[in-house]
Write a structure and sequence with these properties.
By secondary structure, this protein is an alpha+beta fold. The chain has a five-stranded mixed sheet.
Amino acid sequence: EMLSTFFSSHLNITNVLSSAVAISSFPRFASTVPVTFQKGDQVWKDVPVDLGSNLMREAQRNGINLGGACEGSCACSTCHVYVDQEHFDKLPEASEREDDMIDFAFEPDVTSRLACQIEVTPELSGARVDIPLQTRNMVSEEDLLDL
């Protein structure tokens, strides 16, 4: 009886292990999505941005010159971007604080957002993000200390 219990538990473990191997052989879901950044005449195509991160952090991680004076705390407008209309419409609405900061941005328009406030989701795949040629840095070190 003890031997049959051992073999039956061994078979169950073998089934679990073979199932795990079978599952791991399936293609994984993408952990990045492509986003195109543009600033003036320079274009970066299909930059891979990590899902769950924010657009400012991912742009900087990929070597794109995008401001972030407040380090993503929504206390400045140096990461101000324009998102193409199709993808802008898929974004959650900007918070009141983000809207207030956008008012200080260089030449804001209807598709203006702060990149630090845009969470990278699958819906952002294929987005075109234009970076303004200039920024306004309204944050000071004292502002950062109060956060």
